[in-house]
Amino acid sequence: MTNQSLAGHITKFRVSQTPRIKRNRPAVSCSTCRARKQKCDRQQPCGPCQKRGVEDSCHLDSTPRPPPPSLANRGNTRVQNELRQMQSLLQSLLSQPNQDQAATSCDTLAAGVDRIRQAISGNTSSALTAPQVDQPPDIVFGSLAKATSEDVLAALPSRQCSDKIVSTYLNARHIAVPFIHIHQFRRRYEAFWNNPESANLLWASILFSVLAVGTIIPDDKEGRCQSSAFISMSARCLVSGQYSTATEFSVEALAMHLHARCFHQEDSNINLSQLHALAVRIAQQRGYHLAGDDFLQALTPFQVEMRRRVWYYLQYYDVLLSLEHGLPPVIHEDTYSIGHPTNVTDDEFDEESKIIFSSPTTEAYAALPCVYMSQLLPILRRIVCHALGFKTYNYKDALFLRSQLETWYRSIPRCLCVHSVKNTCLTNTASAALHRVLFQLIYNTGIALIYRPFLNIMSLENKNFKTALDLSRKNALRSIEVYIEVGQEMQSGGGLYHNPQVKANLPVNDFFITMIMAPLEFFGCPDLPQSQKGYIIHTLETAAQLWPTRSCVSSYALESSRLLQVILADIYSSTSIERPMYPLYSKPGKCPLAMLWNLWFKKWGWLGELVD
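== Related to transcription activator protein acu-15 ==
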């Protein structure tokens, strides 16, 4: 075969290449050597130029490398190119003949394009000088500066002061949360001070929350300001530690932060019910709602017990916040399988424990109230849904709820029952006395909530209404008696005088008292038994003298004080007893009756016919 016959088969095909982009590298030789393509020693003047006698033309120019364009700049450049093409297209349209009618519109559009180009140029220049955000804003806590180990150390007080605050918190067992194991926390606390740079930010958030609660226990103005600063730093550590990824310490840090914020109710920046719901959801992601046998990975007995305590505390706040805000509970009985906490002190088990044995119920150790409160919470959750109208039971079913509550109340050991607050303070610690008072008030609150939906003003002659009203009155009177004893023990010479735990915990008790007394405002106290009328009036008058002193530090005490004034005014108007002159703690132009009517009825929406 000749070459000509092969010519059609041996044609060279070349793939077209994209033009090479020459990198703008810095110069490594002088201009003369670069032009002659010779090696340069980069001296001034260089050796080759000296040999050739052209020292004056030896220049070593370094070409600066431009910074890489950012994503925003590349986007702005692309928009600028698009606008430039639009402007050239408009100009070509204007240059064509027979376009007189659209000339005005095209001129206006071209002017608009110019304005857009100028605006983009201005935004580009301002974006170059705008400060960069170190972390995106959190959906709950908002925009917070990123916390580093240096920030953590700068926000902490001295080691000696920190030790004192932590000790104050751990010794206040009625205020301290049960899911912080004392000995484990102290070991991690020592490790933190030995090497603070390597500390987990979520654990640092727990530490700042502990400091926030510990500084507020002494109840002074300086401590409250310092506590607010610790809470802010705790939030920064939460966000910087990426709590939303559900890693280790995420649930404990959120729960402890919620606990600390409950002592700052005046701070409305964070909605506590939303923060609690977030903590519950992350706890579910971490499997805190499941029993230890449901896990594929092995959990130590210590880890299982601490998970029980965390889940118990989330349930406790679920009931409190649902009752306070009139919202349905977040946790439901058929969505968790984890058991109740074990009645065991922190001294009786630790991380190396293989088996955890329950202690006897004869002594009111720190864990015993948690065990019985955990058993009450499912019952109380059903009662709250019944009272707030989410699942209202008929009278027969309400009596069944009452029987469940009574069964729990009878199961409480004697060391947690209130017989006399004064005797309790003499023979027990302040923490044990406060636990007894809390149990009694929660039980009385459950009774009040069970019968509240049947207090219908349209059925005054109904037998169920009369029974409900009579029980509500007796229940409220018993609660007021207990709280009067607490107030008297807080006076000079009493067993609770100048006890920091009492002052820090009283707002919760004030809340329960307000819930218990609320029904009496609307139905008053007519037809009081003659044999008890004097005692009842004396009890209410005593409370009316005690509670106004706390109304400046507790909003619930203020509401209880107003309720007492309304109830006493109703009693005085129906009898010939002269009314004493008590200070009226109400805002000008607002009647306590109207204010509390809105608080208990319009807010929650049940018994709506009463509002009309």
